[in-house]
Amino acid sequence: MTLTITAHLAAEVRAMAARAGMTQEQLFQAAGLPRMTYYRRMETPSDFRLSELEALARAAGCTFGVQLLPLPVEHTGRATATGEPTR
Questions:
Q1: Cα angle vertex 8, ends 6, 13, to 5°?
Q2: 3-class state of residue 81 by DSSP
Q3: How far apart are CA 52 and CA 42, in angstroms?
Q4: If we measure between CA atoms, which residue out of 26, 13, 25 comes closest to residue 54?
């Protein structure tokens, strides 16, 4: 099963809170994010904003960065959003 980006980010936020010795709600509060944002992002889940991720990382004492990686491409075609070569 492949995680969506949103689910992967929520899992990373959970891990970040645990490493910082905080609950997820405490992390959101320390980041200055409203309680409703916590519920929207972690319970629904809905997409994170980059500014939210940056604030959460800072509150947890982590650095924040984004790395964009190319999709796997077969030598015969371009990759689609799923990483499958086009035909």
A1: 95
A2: coil
A3: 12
A4: 13
Output Rg (C-alpha) for the chain, integer angstroms: 16
CB-based burial label for 33 (10 Å; 0-12, 13-18, 19+): buried
Note the pTM of the prediction, 2 decimals.
0.73
Tokens 């519920």 label which residue?
Answer: 39
User: What's the full length of the chain, in residues?
Assistant: 87
Per-residue pLDDT of the chain (87 residues; tens, 9 = 90+): 667 888 889 999 999 999 999 999 999 999 999 999 999 999 887 899 999 999 999 999 998 888 887 877 654 455 555 555 555
DSSP 26-77: HHHHHTT--HHHHIIIIIS--PPPHHHHHHHHHHTT--------PPP--TTS
